[in-house]
Amino acid sequence: MASVEILHPDDITQEQLRQHKEDKVQNSQRSPVARVLVSCEYHELFTVNEIRKRTYSHWQLKSPSQSQMVNSGFFNCNVGDRVICIYCNLICQEWLITDDPVEIHRILSPNCCFVKSNLVATSTTTPAILNETPYVPANMEIVLAQACNPQFVEIPKRQATYASWPHHLPLPLVDDLIRAGFFYSGLKTIVTCFYCNGSLQNWGEKDNPMIEHARWFPHCSYVKQLCDDDLYKKIQQSKRAAKQTCSHITQQQTQTRFSVSLTTSNADQLQIPDESTLSRLVAARLDSPVSQRLLTKFKLSIIKRCYEDQLRLKQDDFPSDSDLYMACLILQKQIEIIDGRKENIIIPSKRLLELTEKNKREAIMAQSNAMVNVNGSDTEEEGSEMVTSTPSIEPIDTKKEEKPRQGETENFNVCVLCLTDEKRLACIPCGHLATCVPCGHSLRNCPLCRREIKAFIRVYI
């Protein structure tokens, strides 16, 4: 067995701190937004990524594929299709062919350091398509006013972050990026959505920020409301077509690579004809120096189980001491997190369905409250009109119907804030239709009645 220094999370952190000490000095001279983003970054060591790849050497599923699982940050647990993230302790199993592990990791554990720092889509990559979920028309969806980055919901606040934007490069217009919901991170060309926290970089001059936003982060409620239904559908259909083409090519490459790998590795496999042979091989390895060192961090039963699983499943030793350490860490985390309760193991499709149902219930409740408030306001206005009209002595039929002023008709649907785009968002719970999508999401109170905004619903007129 190769002798490699065991990687402990604390050791990894210290090494990363040493590697990025100079970056931290430079970071102090950056903008506030850039400093926040850099301080939250987690740069996973190449060694850890390679270990994660090796845990999938016997992955049985074609979809989600090995590459999808590796890119999502999950480690294989060698128990069926169970996987775990060692950073946020999310454990999932019973994957469906349509599941996208990257998006599931992002949705179920948005605060995971791996998710925040590594699952960033760029225009030069082709990440897996989202899990296929029933399409909900934008005009029927109620969106809660709960942005991931509330400090950038206001358009001027997002605009201020572009002071150091590289204007000399062939990039999209800043106004288009701002309207699409992005604020500038201060690093390279990385921009982040104030609502969904999704980030994009490597922009081209002809890229449309709104379309790219919807393409890579289709679950973002802000960009859903910003796009009209037809455009949103076309974007997703185009993405599905690209996924099918990419998936076919990747599958062919994977099959070729692993067929070659299996041919070269079969000759080196250990011969384990029975359980007694397995027990003898495990006992010999438990006496090794690396196993004795691991006893300071893990129980003997955990180390023994890892050797048994490795030899029984892969019929080979761990490629390195670090692989053994990671196997022990994964097993120990499973024992601690699951704790004998099946409900601690997440089934992605079921959990996403639960979240969808929860959002539907909240949306229905918010819509019901909005209707009640609107009806109540109408009743009060009618009563007020009756009271004020009683003293009038002028006959009703003598009142001349007022004609709309010149230009009043075409200005009726104009956003009350920017006076440019059409009104598209109704505030919940008051129900007032007053603003376009970008302006509406920058508000905390309704501009007409000043009530606090709990959610928005897009309305088509």
Summarize the structure.
The chain contains 19 helices and ten strands. The protein is of the alpha+beta class. Among the domains are: 110 residues, Inhibitor Of Apoptosis Protein (2mihbC-IAP-1), Chain A (Orthogonal Bundle), CATH 1.10.1170; 99 residues, Inhibitor Of Apoptosis Protein (2mihbC-IAP-1), Chain A, CATH 1.10.1170.10; 80 residues, Herpes Virus-1 (2-Layer Sandwich).
Chain-wise SSE layout:
Blueprint: H1 9-19, H2 21-27, H3 32-39, H4 46-55, H5 66-72, E1 75-76, E2 83-84, E3 91-92, H6 101-108, H7 113-118, E4 142-144, H8 155-160, H9 174-179, E5 182-184, E6 191-193, E7 199-200, H10 209-216, H11 221-226, H12 229-265, H13 275-286, H14 289-294, H15 300-314, H16 321-338, H17 348-389, H18 408-411, E8 425-428, E9 433-435, H19 437-440, E10 455-458
Antiparallel strand pairs: 1-2, 2-3, 4-10, 5-6, 6-7, 8-9, 8-10
Q: What features would you describe in this structure?
A:
- This protein has 461 residues and is of the alpha+beta class.
- Among the domains are: 9-118, Inhibitor Of Apoptosis Protein (2mihbC-IAP-1), Chain A (Orthogonal Bundle); 138-236, Inhibitor Of Apoptosis Protein (2mihbC-IAP-1), Chain A (Orthogonal Bundle); 348-376 and 411-461, Zinc/RING finger domain, C3HC4 (zinc finger) (Herpes Virus-1, 2-Layer Sandwich).
- 48% of the residues lie in helices and 6% in strands.
- It has 19 helices and 10 strands.
- It has a 4-stranded antiparallel β-sheet. Strands 1-2-3 form a 3-stranded antiparallel β-sheet.
- The chain is elongated.
- It starts with 8 loop residues before the first helix and ends with a strand.
- Mean pLDDT is 75; it is low at 1-41, 121-140, 258-267 and 382-409.
- Residues 396-405 have a biased composition (Basic and acidic residues).
- Belongs to the IAP family.
- It comes from Didymodactylos carnosus.
- Pfam families: BIR (PF00653), zf-C3HC4_3 (PF13920).
- Residues 415-450 form the RING-type domain.
